[in-house]
Predict the structure.
Amino acid sequence: MRSATRKIIHIDMDAFYASVEQRDNPSLRGKPVVVAWRGARSVVCAASYEARTFGVRSAMPAVRAERLCPQAVFVPPDFVRYKAVSKQVREIFARHTDLIEPLSLDEAYLDVTAPKTLSPDGEPLSATEIARTIRAQIREETQLTASAGVAPNKFLAKIASDWKKPDGLFVIRPHQVFDFLTPLPVGCIPGVGKVAQQKLETLGIKTVGDVRGVDIAVLQETFGSFGARLHERAQGIDERPIEPDQPVQSISAEDTFERDVPLDEIEPTIRRLAEKTWASARKTERIGRTVVLKLKTAQFRILTRSFTPETPPESLERLVEIALALRERVELPVETRYRLVGVGLAGFRDRDTSRDAQRETQPALFADWPEGL
Protein backbone atom coordinates (compact mmCIF):
# COMPACT_ATOMS: atom_id res chain seq x y z
CA MET A 1 0.00 0.00 0.00
CA ARG A 2 1.49 3.31 -1.06
CA SER A 3 0.71 5.21 2.13
CA ALA A 4 1.67 2.37 4.50
CA THR A 5 4.96 4.01 5.58
CA ARG A 6 3.18 7.04 6.94
CA LYS A 7 2.23 7.40 10.59
CA ILE A 8 -0.77 9.68 11.05
CA ILE A 9 -2.56 10.55 14.28
CA HIS A 10 -6.00 12.16 14.41
CA ILE A 11 -6.72 13.82 17.76
CA ASP A 12 -10.31 14.76 18.59
CA MET A 13 -11.18 16.48 21.87
CA ASP A 14 -14.19 14.88 23.55
CA ALA A 15 -17.32 17.09 23.50
CA PHE A 16 -14.86 19.98 23.59
CA TYR A 17 -16.95 23.09 24.29
CA ALA A 18 -19.26 21.27 26.70
CA SER A 19 -16.29 19.65 28.45
CA VAL A 20 -14.63 23.05 28.95
CA GLU A 21 -17.86 24.34 30.50
CA GLN A 22 -18.11 21.33 32.82
CA ARG A 23 -14.45 21.65 33.78
CA ASP A 24 -14.78 25.33 34.66
CA ASN A 25 -18.15 25.04 36.40
CA PRO A 26 -18.25 21.98 38.70
CA SER A 27 -22.03 22.33 39.10
CA LEU A 28 -22.42 21.28 35.45
CA ARG A 29 -20.53 18.01 35.82
CA GLY A 30 -22.67 14.95 35.25
CA LYS A 31 -25.47 17.07 33.80
CA PRO A 32 -26.72 17.24 30.17
CA VAL A 33 -25.02 20.42 28.98
CA VAL A 34 -25.90 22.03 25.64
CA VAL A 35 -23.64 24.81 24.40
CA ALA A 36 -25.98 27.09 22.46
CA TRP A 37 -27.89 30.32 22.66
CA ARG A 38 -31.58 29.83 23.25
CA GLY A 39 -33.85 30.91 20.41
CA ALA A 40 -35.88 29.67 17.47
CA ARG A 41 -32.97 30.02 15.04
CA SER A 42 -30.11 28.97 17.32
CA VAL A 43 -28.18 25.75 16.71
CA VAL A 44 -26.27 23.50 19.08
CA CYS A 45 -22.51 24.17 19.10
CA ALA A 46 -21.75 21.17 21.32
CA ALA A 47 -23.45 18.69 23.63
CA SER A 48 -22.03 16.84 26.62
CA TYR A 49 -22.13 13.07 26.57
CA GLU A 50 -24.91 13.21 29.12
CA ALA A 51 -26.98 15.24 26.61
CA ARG A 52 -26.03 12.98 23.72
CA THR A 53 -27.77 10.04 25.40
CA PHE A 54 -31.02 11.91 24.68
CA GLY A 55 -30.13 12.29 21.00
CA VAL A 56 -28.81 15.86 21.18
CA ARG A 57 -26.11 16.52 18.59
CA SER A 58 -24.02 19.41 17.27
CA ALA A 59 -25.63 21.51 14.50
CA MET A 60 -29.10 20.49 15.69
CA PRO A 61 -31.63 23.32 16.14
CA ALA A 62 -31.60 24.37 19.78
CA VAL A 63 -35.39 24.12 20.03
CA ARG A 64 -35.22 20.47 19.00
CA ALA A 65 -32.46 19.81 21.53
CA GLU A 66 -34.70 21.29 24.22
CA ARG A 67 -37.57 19.03 23.16
CA LEU A 68 -35.34 15.96 23.25
CA CYS A 69 -33.84 16.85 26.62
CA PRO A 70 -36.04 19.27 28.60
CA GLN A 71 -33.71 19.05 31.60
CA ALA A 72 -30.68 20.17 29.56
CA VAL A 73 -28.61 23.05 30.90
CA PHE A 74 -28.09 25.58 28.10
CA VAL A 75 -24.81 27.50 28.25
CA PRO A 76 -23.97 30.31 25.80
CA PRO A 77 -20.72 29.64 23.93
CA ASP A 78 -17.52 31.39 24.99
CA PHE A 79 -15.22 31.11 21.98
CA VAL A 80 -12.46 33.22 23.52
CA ARG A 81 -12.10 30.62 26.27
CA TYR A 82 -12.33 27.68 23.86
CA LYS A 83 -9.67 29.24 21.64
CA ALA A 84 -7.31 29.62 24.62
CA VAL A 85 -7.69 25.93 25.51
CA SER A 86 -7.24 24.95 21.87
CA LYS A 87 -3.95 26.87 21.84
CA GLN A 88 -2.79 24.88 24.88
CA VAL A 89 -3.58 21.62 23.12
CA ARG A 90 -1.76 22.66 19.95
CA GLU A 91 1.31 23.54 21.97
CA ILE A 92 1.27 19.96 23.22
CA PHE A 93 1.07 18.67 19.63
CA ALA A 94 4.06 20.82 18.67
CA ARG A 95 6.28 19.04 21.20
CA HIS A 96 5.99 15.91 19.09
CA THR A 97 5.88 17.09 15.45
CA ASP A 98 5.86 20.20 13.30
CA LEU A 99 3.48 18.57 10.81
CA ILE A 100 0.15 19.57 12.35
CA GLU A 101 -3.02 20.20 10.36
CA PRO A 102 -5.74 21.76 12.54
CA LEU A 103 -9.27 21.04 11.32
CA SER A 104 -11.04 23.15 13.94
CA LEU A 105 -10.51 24.24 17.53
CA ASP A 106 -11.03 20.69 18.76
CA GLU A 107 -9.36 18.36 16.26
CA ALA A 108 -6.20 18.00 14.19
CA TYR A 109 -4.10 15.62 12.13
CA LEU A 110 -0.47 15.00 13.06
CA ASP A 111 2.17 13.34 10.88
CA VAL A 112 4.58 11.58 13.24
CA THR A 113 6.47 9.57 10.63
CA ALA A 114 9.61 11.41 11.75
CA PRO A 115 8.69 12.64 15.23
CA LYS A 116 10.54 14.96 17.56
CA THR A 117 9.84 12.66 20.49
CA LEU A 118 12.57 10.15 21.32
CA SER A 119 12.74 7.26 23.74
CA PRO A 120 15.35 7.25 26.57
CA ASP A 121 17.73 5.30 24.30
CA GLY A 122 17.43 7.91 21.54
CA GLU A 123 15.09 6.00 19.25
CA PRO A 124 11.95 7.64 17.83
CA LEU A 125 8.79 6.77 19.72
CA SER A 126 6.14 4.76 17.90
CA ALA A 127 3.03 6.58 16.69
CA THR A 128 0.98 4.66 19.25
CA GLU A 129 3.24 5.78 22.09
CA ILE A 130 3.13 9.37 20.88
CA ALA A 131 -0.68 9.30 20.75
CA ARG A 132 -0.77 7.83 24.25
CA THR A 133 1.64 10.51 25.50
CA ILE A 134 -0.31 13.35 23.90
CA ARG A 135 -3.57 12.16 25.47
CA ALA A 136 -1.89 11.95 28.88
CA GLN A 137 -0.41 15.45 28.53
CA ILE A 138 -3.78 16.89 27.49
CA ARG A 139 -5.45 15.29 30.52
CA GLU A 140 -2.76 16.51 32.93
CA GLU A 141 -2.43 20.05 31.60
CA THR A 142 -6.03 20.89 30.61
CA GLN A 143 -8.08 18.46 32.74
CA LEU A 144 -9.85 17.43 29.54
CA THR A 145 -9.91 14.20 27.57
CA ALA A 146 -9.15 13.50 23.93
CA SER A 147 -9.60 10.50 21.67
CA ALA A 148 -6.95 9.47 19.18
CA GLY A 149 -6.74 7.36 16.06
CA VAL A 150 -3.45 6.07 14.65
CA ALA A 151 -3.25 4.82 11.06
CA PRO A 152 -1.26 4.97 7.81
CA ASN A 153 -3.32 7.88 6.43
CA LYS A 154 -5.79 10.65 7.26
CA PHE A 155 -8.94 8.82 6.15
CA LEU A 156 -8.23 5.84 8.40
CA ALA A 157 -6.94 7.89 11.33
CA LYS A 158 -10.16 9.90 11.47
CA ILE A 159 -12.26 6.74 11.52
CA ALA A 160 -10.00 5.29 14.22
CA SER A 161 -10.29 8.32 16.52
CA ASP A 162 -14.04 7.84 16.65
CA TRP A 163 -13.80 4.11 17.32
CA LYS A 164 -13.40 4.22 21.10
CA LYS A 165 -14.81 7.63 21.98
CA PRO A 166 -14.79 9.17 24.48
CA ASP A 167 -11.29 9.12 25.96
CA GLY A 168 -10.10 6.29 23.73
CA LEU A 169 -7.18 5.24 21.55
CA PHE A 170 -7.50 2.99 18.51
CA VAL A 171 -4.74 1.88 16.17
CA ILE A 172 -5.08 0.57 12.60
CA ARG A 173 -1.78 -0.96 11.51
CA PRO A 174 -0.96 -1.28 7.78
CA HIS A 175 -1.54 -5.03 7.67
CA GLN A 176 -4.96 -4.59 9.33
CA VAL A 177 -6.40 -2.05 6.87
CA PHE A 178 -8.29 -4.39 4.52
CA ASP A 179 -9.77 -6.52 7.29
CA PHE A 180 -10.77 -3.44 9.28
CA LEU A 181 -12.47 -1.66 6.36
CA THR A 182 -14.23 -4.65 4.77
CA PRO A 183 -17.30 -4.90 7.06
CA LEU A 184 -17.78 -1.16 7.64
CA PRO A 185 -20.88 0.53 6.16
CA VAL A 186 -20.06 2.43 3.01
CA GLY A 187 -21.34 5.60 4.69
CA CYS A 188 -18.07 5.80 6.64
CA ILE A 189 -16.37 7.05 3.46
CA PRO A 190 -16.37 10.87 3.43
CA GLY A 191 -18.77 12.22 0.81
CA VAL A 192 -21.14 9.26 0.92
CA GLY A 193 -24.44 10.68 2.17
CA LYS A 194 -27.95 9.29 2.11
CA VAL A 195 -28.50 9.79 -1.61
CA ALA A 196 -25.15 8.27 -2.54
CA GLN A 197 -25.86 5.33 -0.24
CA GLN A 198 -29.15 4.72 -2.03
CA LYS A 199 -27.37 4.71 -5.38
CA LEU A 200 -24.76 2.33 -4.06
CA GLU A 201 -27.42 -0.01 -2.73
CA THR A 202 -28.92 -0.23 -6.22
CA LEU A 203 -25.50 -1.61 -7.24
CA GLY A 204 -25.62 -4.11 -4.38
CA ILE A 205 -23.11 -2.12 -2.32
CA LYS A 206 -23.65 -1.78 1.43
CA THR A 207 -20.16 -2.17 2.87
CA VAL A 208 -16.70 -0.89 2.04
CA GLY A 209 -15.77 -4.42 1.05
CA ASP A 210 -18.62 -4.43 -1.48
CA VAL A 211 -17.12 -1.37 -3.17
CA ARG A 212 -14.00 -3.35 -4.02
CA GLY A 213 -16.07 -5.79 -6.04
CA VAL A 214 -17.34 -3.08 -8.40
CA ASP A 215 -15.30 -2.00 -11.40
CA ILE A 216 -13.97 1.54 -11.10
CA ALA A 217 -15.54 2.38 -14.49
CA VAL A 218 -18.99 1.62 -13.05
CA LEU A 219 -18.31 3.84 -10.04
CA GLN A 220 -17.14 6.68 -12.26
CA GLU A 221 -20.13 6.32 -14.54
CA THR A 222 -22.44 6.56 -11.54
CA PHE A 223 -20.63 9.18 -9.44
CA GLY A 224 -18.35 11.03 -11.84
CA SER A 225 -14.96 12.01 -10.44
CA PHE A 226 -16.04 10.93 -6.96
CA GLY A 227 -16.17 7.34 -8.21
CA ALA A 228 -12.38 7.18 -8.35
CA ARG A 229 -12.13 8.46 -4.79
CA LEU A 230 -14.63 5.83 -3.64
CA HIS A 231 -12.50 3.16 -5.26
CA GLU A 232 -9.33 4.41 -3.54
CA ARG A 233 -10.88 4.78 -0.09
CA ALA A 234 -12.27 1.24 -0.30
CA GLN A 235 -8.67 0.06 -0.75
CA GLY A 236 -7.61 2.12 2.25
CA ILE A 237 -5.71 4.55 0.01
CA ASP A 238 -5.49 8.23 0.92
CA GLU A 239 -2.41 10.06 -0.33
CA ARG A 240 -3.35 13.49 1.05
CA PRO A 241 -0.40 14.95 2.96
CA ILE A 242 -0.65 16.80 6.24
CA GLU A 243 -0.95 20.51 5.42
CA PRO A 244 0.31 22.55 8.37
CA ASP A 245 -1.08 25.97 9.24
CA GLN A 246 -3.73 26.07 6.54
CA PRO A 247 -6.20 28.75 7.63
CA VAL A 248 -9.88 28.12 6.98
CA GLN A 249 -10.84 29.60 3.62
CA SER A 250 -14.38 28.31 3.19
CA ILE A 251 -17.02 26.26 4.95
CA SER A 252 -20.05 24.79 3.25
CA ALA A 253 -22.82 22.21 3.40
CA GLU A 254 -24.83 20.69 0.58
CA ASP A 255 -27.62 18.22 0.03
CA THR A 256 -29.11 16.32 -2.90
CA PHE A 257 -32.88 16.11 -3.15
CA GLU A 258 -34.72 12.81 -3.37
CA ARG A 259 -36.40 14.24 -6.48
CA ASP A 260 -35.63 17.24 -8.67
CA VAL A 261 -37.47 20.30 -7.34
CA PRO A 262 -38.30 23.82 -8.54
CA LEU A 263 -36.54 26.84 -7.10
CA ASP A 264 -39.48 27.90 -4.95
CA GLU A 265 -39.36 24.64 -2.96
CA ILE A 266 -35.78 24.80 -1.72
CA GLU A 267 -36.15 27.37 1.08
CA PRO A 268 -36.42 24.79 3.91
CA THR A 269 -33.27 23.07 2.66
CA ILE A 270 -31.39 26.38 2.41
CA ARG A 271 -32.34 27.14 6.01
CA ARG A 272 -31.19 23.72 7.21
CA LEU A 273 -27.87 23.89 5.34
CA ALA A 274 -27.25 27.43 6.58
CA GLU A 275 -27.62 26.08 10.13
CA LYS A 276 -24.98 23.44 9.47
CA THR A 277 -22.61 25.94 7.87
CA TRP A 278 -23.10 28.45 10.69
CA ALA A 279 -22.45 25.81 13.35
CA SER A 280 -19.23 24.75 11.60
CA ALA A 281 -18.11 28.36 11.13
CA ARG A 282 -18.48 29.03 14.84
CA LYS A 283 -15.87 26.36 15.55
CA THR A 284 -13.17 28.24 13.65
CA GLU A 285 -10.98 31.11 14.75
CA ARG A 286 -11.81 33.16 11.66
CA ILE A 287 -14.78 35.06 10.24
CA GLY A 288 -16.35 34.43 6.83
CA ARG A 289 -17.45 37.48 4.87
CA THR A 290 -18.94 36.08 1.67
CA VAL A 291 -22.13 34.04 1.47
CA VAL A 292 -22.35 31.58 -1.42
CA LEU A 293 -25.34 29.67 -2.77
CA LYS A 294 -24.66 26.66 -4.98
CA LEU A 295 -27.25 24.96 -7.18
CA LYS A 296 -27.06 22.00 -9.52
CA THR A 297 -29.79 21.58 -12.11
CA ALA A 298 -31.36 18.30 -13.15
CA GLN A 299 -29.03 18.48 -16.17
CA PHE A 300 -25.99 18.72 -13.81
CA ARG A 301 -25.31 22.37 -14.63
CA ILE A 302 -23.69 24.02 -11.59
CA LEU A 303 -24.56 27.60 -10.65
CA THR A 304 -23.10 29.71 -7.84
CA ARG A 305 -24.26 33.07 -6.59
CA SER A 306 -22.35 35.04 -3.95
CA PHE A 307 -22.63 38.24 -1.98
CA THR A 308 -20.17 40.04 0.30
CA PRO A 309 -21.98 42.42 2.68
CA GLU A 310 -20.41 45.50 4.23
CA THR A 311 -19.89 43.58 7.47
CA PRO A 312 -19.60 39.79 7.88
CA PRO A 313 -22.84 37.95 8.68
CA GLU A 314 -23.16 38.30 12.45
CA SER A 315 -25.85 35.69 13.01
CA LEU A 316 -27.50 32.62 11.55
CA GLU A 317 -30.53 34.75 10.71
CA ARG A 318 -28.39 37.08 8.60
CA LEU A 319 -26.74 34.13 6.82
CA VAL A 320 -30.16 32.66 5.99
CA GLU A 321 -31.43 36.05 4.81
CA ILE A 322 -28.55 36.50 2.37
CA ALA A 323 -28.68 32.90 1.11
CA LEU A 324 -32.39 33.21 0.37
CA ALA A 325 -31.81 36.55 -1.38
CA LEU A 326 -29.17 34.92 -3.58
CA ARG A 327 -31.84 32.50 -4.78
CA GLU A 328 -33.58 35.47 -6.39
CA ARG A 329 -30.49 36.07 -8.56
CA VAL A 330 -30.94 32.75 -10.37
CA GLU A 331 -32.26 33.69 -13.79
CA LEU A 332 -33.05 30.30 -15.28
CA PRO A 333 -36.58 29.53 -16.55
CA VAL A 334 -39.14 28.97 -13.79
CA GLU A 335 -39.70 25.38 -14.92
CA THR A 336 -36.03 24.50 -14.23
CA ARG A 337 -35.63 21.72 -11.72
CA TYR A 338 -32.74 21.37 -9.26
CA ARG A 339 -31.14 18.25 -7.83
CA LEU A 340 -28.72 19.81 -5.34
CA VAL A 341 -28.31 22.94 -3.21
CA GLY A 342 -25.41 24.12 -1.08
CA VAL A 343 -24.83 27.04 1.30
CA GLY A 344 -21.37 28.27 2.19
CA LEU A 345 -19.26 30.98 3.75
CA ALA A 346 -16.04 32.12 2.08
CA GLY A 347 -13.52 34.93 2.27
CA PHE A 348 -12.50 33.97 5.81
CA ARG A 349 -10.25 36.39 7.65
CA ASP A 350 -8.76 36.54 11.11
CA ARG A 351 -11.09 38.20 13.60
CA ASP A 352 -8.73 41.16 14.05
CA THR A 353 -8.01 41.63 10.33
CA SER A 354 -8.36 45.17 9.04
CA ARG A 355 -11.20 46.15 6.72
CA ASP A 356 -8.72 46.74 3.87
CA ALA A 357 -7.21 43.28 4.16
CA GLN A 358 -10.67 41.77 4.11
CA ARG A 359 -11.18 43.06 0.58
CA GLU A 360 -8.69 40.57 -0.84
CA THR A 361 -9.99 38.22 -3.47
CA GLN A 362 -11.94 35.30 -2.02
CA PRO A 363 -10.91 31.71 -2.88
CA ALA A 364 -13.10 29.41 -4.92
CA LEU A 365 -15.78 27.74 -2.84
CA PHE A 366 -17.04 24.19 -3.27
CA ALA A 367 -13.96 23.35 -5.34
CA ASP A 368 -13.41 20.06 -3.56
CA TRP A 369 -17.02 19.01 -3.19
CA PRO A 370 -17.67 15.60 -4.75
CA GLU A 371 -19.48 15.71 -8.07
CA GLY A 372 -22.39 13.50 -8.98
CA LEU A 373 -23.83 13.11 -5.46
